[in-house]
User: Which sequence fits this backbone?
């Protein structure tokens, strides 16, 4: 019966990816360590469903630069629109409103899991990726912000970023708004005025590392033409106004106290600005009393965070060591986590002000950083492979595998076609197996087993000399009764 | 400015749920232990994306009784249909085809994660739930099936199901097909004949625990009317044909060898049936040599598994201890895991036969079993709560929390409004806190701190007598310098 079947494509959907072996275990090991720190700080895990109603997610996406269509959504049978969550903050806001009578208040929670963005995929830019968040909902106290910063610092150190290789930078949106007031682009009596201008100012400052002072100045004024010739419209500030804002970005001083003093000058008579400066002062004091000095957590007015919804303290963790970029140039690794205080998210549901603050760790960026530092790598040693010389004796081989596993040694029976022994060793190689166990008819008669040392090949590939190879027997014949003990010896 | 705002509903979408605190950590602890067993057996983790093309998932759902619309799907901008995965097997088949030149062969992988079903939600029936699978792709050897059974047995024991409280039952579809051949509902020369009848037979046998012999006999014959009066059409077998099939369901004997002998009688001259019996014999022998006797893994012809795609050995893990059902009646806990050999899934993509076998553990069922046995419960002790008597001294309190955390003691600063001290103790209670730390102005002057023992309340609630309460001071005043040591003492 001749039939023509159209076969489905075996393809991950565009912008999605699969994670294999060590990619899974390395991420898991990192997240487990971070969860340990969050637990120590009294944060409880929360796992919301991946699916939310579009209504609960809200129409806004975290980055207002992007279109509203950034979620994967579909219509339910009941005509409700459902969507995959695009971050872990929107579901937290929904939970905080839904369970407000049952949850402790304040509510400290952490969440780790995938989020989905319906965006054009690009190199290193996926439509599903992990986030790792911790938030405190229900307190306006900046002690909550200080705690998040301390916890972030601890989390970075515990996963393997040594002190000195990172810094958590803290700023306050209220200070920036105070500066805007002084510069004349914020009217405390009508906060809706100049909103567009302030958005441009915010995003301009956020790009200072990439654009430099001149680039930011251009965006604060008429606008800026980039290398490709594209023109970005500026905020239209006068040179004097721009100067006030630029003064803010360079307000960082050697000590927290000096920075606070400088900021106090800059915000002048702005009530909001003065409040923000006082909050920063308190945060610095609280952290200092816990032993988190400026070598770990630092006041830095240069940090503004792009997101529109922050209302108070904002923070960002930067890795300060250098890596080579794709063009071979040295550059600082940069940001791996950020967050801040947001007060409007729960109010959407309940109408009541529910102050909240939190941090999100960029899981893939932090993993990349650990790999760049040669840390956080999983043990990629494969299992011991018991080969099959005689397929009539599968039970004998399976008994060997069973004994090894009973002894806690990771082991496999070769389950492919045993005819070609070379294929079995190729398989062991692909599995990064340290030891192959071989028993042919001769050995079975003698009650012996051959152990083949496969670690050496890997060692030589990793640069060990042939001398070492010579001093080490490539394979040994041992008594069957000593299988576990001898394999253990070879593995040690 | 008066405005009427329509607020979004703070609601989990229908059929979805959120997991809080211990619900998350208990599941994670269980899955971590299972992953440890899978790792020991040489299985590698695989995490595929939650989203697949509908084409790759295929139109069929695992249970053929259900409609095709059982997935959450939407159309991409490129007009591709995407969907959330409904199990972990379909993505594995896609991966095995997509990466067939890179993966080791055979490929042993495990996967743990949520899957989504677009079905009517019901009590205890959710539209997102966890699966935990292990599969071996690329080997026809029944040693792979035996290995999966052994691994399942180990996994159940490691999470806390003691030997004797579970049994892994093994059967073989080929044996059942041999019996069908003898009964005259399978024509080896035209396997498409009687397909509908065989489907009914399969599902009837699968329900024997619930319907009993008579119910199954009715479904094999003309059909069955249930308590509600609904009529289910039967397979239309004659009494003689039905008798042959019923003989199969009761073929289990005390030893594997006796069961094999009985099955050999039943399949008579069927080639396929004889092949299936020989496979069962080999599986029993392989397991026996590894020490997995019938107290753990058992041949049982009563197990058929509902899914249509199995082609050879099938297995099911049942918990044999009794629990009380919702009506207070004793019943066996029942199935918590199942699987078997399936050969068609990868072929869909490549056209090549790729034999595979695997098991899926019902994560929620197994968790429920552990809870029923009083095992697998997470430590639900909350954090030590440092209260706030004087909001001017937040830095002092935060320093205490910092010291406790430095010492590895889970601790929190109370971050709500500190005005009402009763609320702080209520909060500590809600957090299941073991110790509250209190320092008012008096204590601060003296350099002391008060520790309030909150464990006792919980202990009394759990049945401890008031005598114990009396022998134990409810609170102690200690030196501030001894904070960590004294808290540790109270916790021990």
Assistant:
């Amino acid at each position: 019966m001749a039939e023509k079947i159209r076969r489905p494509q075996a393809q991950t959907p565009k912008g999605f990816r699969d994670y294999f072996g060590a990619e899974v275990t390395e991420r898991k090991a990192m997240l487990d360590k971070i969860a340990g720190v969050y637990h120590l700080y009294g944060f409880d895990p929360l796992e919301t469903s991946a699916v939310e109603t579009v209504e609960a997610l809200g129409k806004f996406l975290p980055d207002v630069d992007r279109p509203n269509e950034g979620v994967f959504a579909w219509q339910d049978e009941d005509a409700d629109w459902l969507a995959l969550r695009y971050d872990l903050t929107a579901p937290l806001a929904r939970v905080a409103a839904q369970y407000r009578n049952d949850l402790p208040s304040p509510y400290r929670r952490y969440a780790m899991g995938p989020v989905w963005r319906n965006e054009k995929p690009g190199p290193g830019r996926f439509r599903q990726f992990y986030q790792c968040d911790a938030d405190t909902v229900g307190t306006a106290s900046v002690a909550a912000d200080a705690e998040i910063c301390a916890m972030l610092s601890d989390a970075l150190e515990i996963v393997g970023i040594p002190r000195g290789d990172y810094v958590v930078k803290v700023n306050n949106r209220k200070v920036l708004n105070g500066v805007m007031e002084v510069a004349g682009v914020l009217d405390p009596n009508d906060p809706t005025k100049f909103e567009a201008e302030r958005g441009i100012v915010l995003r301009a400052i956020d790009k200072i590392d990439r654009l430099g002072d001149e680039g930011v100045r251009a965006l604060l004024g008429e606008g800026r033409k980039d290398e490709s010739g594209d023109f970005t419209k500026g905020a239209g500030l006068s040179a004097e106004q721009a100067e006030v804002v630029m003064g803010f970005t360079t307000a960082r001083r050697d000590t927290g106290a000096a920075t606070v003093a400088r900021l106090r000058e800059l915000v002048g008579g702005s009530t909001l600005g003065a409040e923000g400066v006082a909050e920063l002062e308190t945060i610095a004091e609280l952290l200092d009393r816990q032993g988190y000095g400026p070598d770990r957590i630092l006041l830095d007015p240069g940090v503004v965070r792009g997101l529109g919804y922050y209302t108070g303290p904002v923070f960002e963790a930067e890795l300060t060591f250098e890596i080579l970029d794709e063009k071979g140039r040295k550059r600082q690794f940069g940001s791996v986590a950020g967050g801040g205080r947001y007060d409007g998210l729960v109010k959407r549901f309940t109408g009541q002000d529910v102050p909240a603050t939190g941090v999100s760790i960029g899981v893939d960026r932090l993993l990349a950083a650990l790999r760049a530092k040669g840390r956080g790598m999983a043990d990629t040693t494969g299992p011991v492979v018991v080969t099959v010389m005689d397929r009539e004796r599968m039970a004998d081989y399976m008994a060997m595998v069973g004994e090894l596993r009973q002894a806690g040694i990771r082991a496999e029976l070769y389950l492919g076609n045993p005819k070609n022994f070379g294929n079995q060793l190729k398989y062991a190689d692909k599995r990064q197996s340290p030891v192959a166990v071989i028993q042919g008819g001769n050995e079975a008669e003698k009650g012996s087993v051959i152990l083949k040392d496969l670690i050496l090949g890997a060692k030589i590939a990793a640069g060990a000399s042939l001398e070492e190879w010579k001093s080490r027997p490539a394979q040994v014949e041992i008594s069957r009764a000593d299988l576990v003990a001898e394999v253990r010896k070879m593995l040690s």
